[in-house]
Amino acid sequence: MHSTMEEPKLIEMFLTVSRGKQLSKNYDAAAIQNSKVPDGIKFKPHVLDQFPTREMVEKSYNELGLTAKEIKRKTKDAIRADQVASFAFPDDVDIRHAPGKKLKLQPTFFWFVLTDVSGSRFYCATVHFYERVDPLDVACLFLQHKDIKTPSWAMNAKQPVYSRKGTATLPRYLLHCIKEFLLTLYISFFSVGICVVSKYPFLWQLRLFLRQIYRISISNAPVPLEKYISNFCGEVPLPPRGVIEVNISIADVSITLSRPPPNALPQMGQHCLEILFARLSVDSVVLVWRLLMMEVKVVMGTKTRSILTPSMDALLKLLFPFYWAGVYIPVLPPRLLDVIDAPVPYFVGISNYDTFMSILQSSRRPTGTCFVDLGKSRLDPPKFHFE
After folding, report:
1. Which pLDDT tens digit goes with each residue over 198-229?
2. Which whole-number Å values give the CA distances from 380 to 299, 311, 356, 363, 372, in the listed order?
3. Domains and CATH numbers, the chain
4. Is the pLDDT score of 88 beyond 60?
């Protein structure tokens, strides 16, 4: 006999995301073709790997005794891996180049929140870093686009090495790469992201987990990396609400998970209030709180993407015992900027500061919207037009 009651999970999925085969939307073929370096060329994100896989999820539903119709409905309404990938790289996946064998850029981290069709929120954490890519893989990406000739930084070989109907030539920098000469002078890197998704706002615990996974991936750990991922994402139980804590060790770091009791304030990520009040004064926080209580549209902007979700989630938790039922997108991708023209209440964040300021100062600014600049601790109250 199977139980149809699905136990709550701590982690919904773990993903590895990087570039796909398609260039970003509205790419400039001429600019790419005439580019001197690959920097600035972007590709749409693509899921490289995920845990649990779709087959594993469907198998768990079968073990619960769900019918095929119920499984189809649950998988259809659930957050998909490709949706997470698109928000993990809101500005798409970019290429960088650097002399030598290393790109001197530190990993970057931020959180974002997704909402499914039922209104449930999913808290996502992601770490971005760069991995070295074989120059041949970079060249092959452009060969798939018929409207783009091989860029100048990947062509001009003195003599053709191979030809296919007279259209393809092995670039000079690939020849040098084969001779291990250019390999030390010119290296291409693609951005890679590892993401973890949970229904519960364990923001700092998720951040710590991803940091440890990244550290282990670049070290010679005796335990396989997949073991740490499967243990944390598939075996660690969700702590019950109350005084019980769950502790897990990942390499040399211990992570503590706990949830407040039912009669306490809702769960809030650690340091969220600290981040909020470090950016805004008490009067400003109270004003934004009042606007949210009145369901006024609010847009937050900053140059630091990692502070958007903690600040905005803290404000929503301060609404307790009320609940924000409007649109909530702490990190709004550029392709979804039309959301700010929606006729419904929303609370969104824009991490591209130039875009934020251009909307604020242009005629496109939506009526009745409050703009909050977290970087300069400044509020621009909503402007209402009455007939």
Report:
1. 999 999 999 999 999 999 998 887 888 899 99
2. 10, 17, 12, 15, 6
3. 13-257 (no CATH), 272-380 (3.40.50.11500)
4. yes
Asked whether the beta carbons of 126 and 195 are under 8 A apart, the reply is: yes
Q: Which two tokens stand for residue 287?
A: 């004003």
Q: Is 88 helix (H, G, I), strand (E, B) or coil?
A: helix
E strands present in 290-345 = 297-301, 327-329
**pTM of the full structure:** 0.84
Of 47, 33, 37, the residue nearest 145 (C-alpha): 33
Encode pLDDT of 340-373 as tens digits: 988 999 999 998 888 888 888 887 788 889 999 9
- Which of 374-377's residues contact partners 24+ apart within 8 Å by CB, and which partners? 374/279, 374/280, 374/300, 374/301, 374/302, 374/304, 374/307, 374/308, 374/311, 375/279, 375/301, 375/302, 375/303, 375/304, 377/279, 377/280, 377/281, 377/284
Q: Residue 337 carries which side chain, given as an amino acid letter?
A: L
For every residue of 51-79, DSSP letters joined together read ES-HHHHHHHHHHTT--HHHHHHHHHHSP
Give the ranges where 294-352 is alpha helix by DSSP (H). 308-317
